[in-house]
Task: inverse folding
């Protein structure tokens, strides 16, 4: 017995020990992704971060000091929040009831295809469509005037509401598809169980669906919010880019390509990222108060 | 919220139909269930047993017919208004609630005051012997424990009717036996009425007061376990009740109650269960009832395989025409040996082609 043991005294090979920790040949497939992330995200991010601390005036925090002392600049944070927050919330609130209806439908694929279209069209095309639709000679004003509800065309565009509508249009499909995937991920037998136990539709939503959905909805909110917060094209095309919809990305754009101050632009981009991060962390922090396990009725 | 009455005398299914597009899952079910009965709906998968249960629970609307609780029509009520308890095949425990909250859910929905709720949840926890697990989430429990929570959650509201949809199918063999006794014990101690869906004849036989055998969306036979076990009315019910041997033969005469059936030149006696229009008939025999005769009467077979089964041996023989017969033997047999097999006339069921 002991002789046999001694013969194998070296123990498992390096390969076996790595495999025991989940590292094997297939792990190498991760390298291209790592390279992409390093090259296209980490490096530019660090470059920008360093650049933001090298302002034209030579001081370390010059850019940040300038940003937070100029209301025309720091105001953009709140102008963007004023757009992104309600838009994301509204999209989520519309998406939930529709997702609950759609989960019971059979032709989901057709609907999802229709909904993906606005994503592929992009914000510019949507903004262009809005320019025609909501313009003085567009359908919107013509119908309201023909119905006698308006005496002269209203200008929805070139202001807060233009960007708001554009963001809802382009953001909704994304929010909806994410929400739908979370809603359909909940085992339907849980609803049946709640029903047989005497819970009406409202109670089933409140007691079963909502608690199980909150973590997913929080992630949906974060992703949708980040998208809305970085709005640029529609803020320019259908908004009022000098005042009401002077969002933070416009400030960054102007710094970079009108003042040619890349250092300042980087600083604004960093501030923008920090604000997004703050909101995301806050939302995900609240998420941890809820149950986050699998939304199924039982294990296998 | 109006929840059904705590008690009733009879549950009537009157011509209950259910169609899915072109497919008819239930072809008009007629059944009366007495209060306190334990009814098993037994059948192969796709026979409509789960559909029937879901129709009774209100999770599926019926396409036709009525479900009556005494003289109160319930098929028009929503599931939350019927007040029946249901145990799901996958348990359907709320994953975000503790065991205690899961069990208390139904009481809370009924607006039971907190002190009483706690008392009843404690009693239910004790009934399924899960007191020590009350604070855990379902994901932290084993399959058998989850099953017990599901049962406790359904019975704590003291429903007039408890519906169980293959509750033991996800458990291993040993646990299945334990839970079977548990379910029977709980049913007896509460005196509730239970409808239990299963495809396992052993489960149905051991649990039920009456068994309803379903096939292709229609009732094939209703009877006590003893009736169904000894005298299935149809060949497919017999098939389900463990009559594994089915041999084609020719009716050659009757002697009192007994039919004489010619099987490949050997005449055997059996009980006539379904009439035949011509002479063709099928004999159904359980493997345990078919044994080597040790004489020169009986169906001659060549032994193909023999398995040791602890108390005896299980043999597989092949007749001259190639029909496989499963039989029991108290002593070992050599592969390739020639034996003759026979069974008591009372243990052989003869089914004509008129089904």
Result:
């Amino acid at each position: 017995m002991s002789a046999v043991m001694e013969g194998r005294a070296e123990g498992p090979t390096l390969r076996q020990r790595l495999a025991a920790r989940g590292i094997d040949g297939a792990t190498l497939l991760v390298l291209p992704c790592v390279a992409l992330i390093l090259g296209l995200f980490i490096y530019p991010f660090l470059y920008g971060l360093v650049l933001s601390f090298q302002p034209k005036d030579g001081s370390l925090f010059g850019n940040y000091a300038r940003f937070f002392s100029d209301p025309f600049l720091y105001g953009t944070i709140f102008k963007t929040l004023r757009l992104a927050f309600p838009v994301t919330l509204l999209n989520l609130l519309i998406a939930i009831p529709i997702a609950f209806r759609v989960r019971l439908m059979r032709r989901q694929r057709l609907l999802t295809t229709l909904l993906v279209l606005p994503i592929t069209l992009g914000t510019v095309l949507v903004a262009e469509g809005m320019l025609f639709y909501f313009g003085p000679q567009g359908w919107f004003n013509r119908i309201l005037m023909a119905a006698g509800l308006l005496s002269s065309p209203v200008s929805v565009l070139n202001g807060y509401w233009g960007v708001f509508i554009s963001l809802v249009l382009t953001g909704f499909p994304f929010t909806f598809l994410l929400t739908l995937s979370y809603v359909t991920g909940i085992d339907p037998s849980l609803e049946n169980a709640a029903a047989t136990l005497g819970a009406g539709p409202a109670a089933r939503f409140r007691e079963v669906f909502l608690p199980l959905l909150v973590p997913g909805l929080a992630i949906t909110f974060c992703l949708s919010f980040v998208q809305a917060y970085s709005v640029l094209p529609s803020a320019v095309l259908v908004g009022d880019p000098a005042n009401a919809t002077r969002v933070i990305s416009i400030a960054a754009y102007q710094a970079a390509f009108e003042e040619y101050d890349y250092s300042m632009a980087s600083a604004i981009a960093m501030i923008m990222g920090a604000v997004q991060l703050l909101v995301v962390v806050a939302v995900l922090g609240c998420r941890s108060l809820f149950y986050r396990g699998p939304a199924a009725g039982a294990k296998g | 919220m109006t929840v059904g009455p705590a008690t009733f005398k009879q549950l009537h299914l009157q011509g209950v139909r259910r169609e899915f597009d072109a497919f008819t899952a239930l072809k008009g079910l007629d059944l009366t269930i007495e209060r306190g009965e334990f009814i098993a709906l037994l059948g192969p998968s796709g026979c409509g047993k789960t559909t029937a249960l879901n129709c009774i629970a209100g999770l599926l609307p019926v396409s036709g017919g009525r479900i009556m609780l005494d003289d109160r029509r319930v098929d028009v009520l929503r599931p939350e208004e019927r007040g029946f308890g249901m145990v799901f095949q996958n348990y359907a425990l709320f994953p975000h609630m503790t065991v205690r909250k899961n069990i208390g859910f139904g009481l809370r929905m009924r607006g039971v005051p907190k002190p009483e709720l706690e008392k009843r949840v404690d009693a239910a926890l004790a009934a399924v012997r899960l007191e020590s697990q009350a604070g855990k989430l379902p994901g932290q429990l084993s399959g058998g424990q989850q099953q017990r929570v599901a049962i406790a959650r359904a019975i704590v509201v003291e429903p007039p009717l408890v519906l169980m949809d293959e509750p033991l199918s996800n458990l291993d063999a040993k646990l299945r036996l334990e839970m079977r006794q548990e379910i029977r014990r709980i049913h007896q101690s509460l005196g509730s009425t239970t409808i239990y869906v299963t495809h396992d004849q052993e489960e149905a036989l051991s649990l039920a007061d009456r068994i309803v055998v379903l096939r292709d969306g229609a009732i094939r036979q209703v009877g006590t376990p003893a009736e169904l076990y000894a005298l299935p009315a149809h060949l497919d019910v017999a098939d389900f009740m463990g009559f594994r041997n089915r041999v084609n033969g020719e009716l050659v005469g009757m002697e009192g109650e007994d039919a004489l059936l010619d099987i490949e030149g050997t005449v055997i006696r059996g009980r006539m269960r379904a009439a035949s229009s011509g002479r063709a008939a099928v004999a159904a025999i359980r493997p345990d009832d078919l044994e080597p005769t040790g004489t020169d009467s009986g169906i001659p077979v060549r032994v193909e395989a023999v398995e040791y089964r602890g108390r005896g041996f299980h043999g597989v023989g092949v007749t001259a025409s190639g029909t496989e017969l499963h039989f029991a033997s108290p002593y070992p047999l050599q592969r390739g040996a020639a034996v003759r097999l026979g069974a008591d006339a009372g243990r052989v069921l003869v089914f004509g082609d008129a089904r």
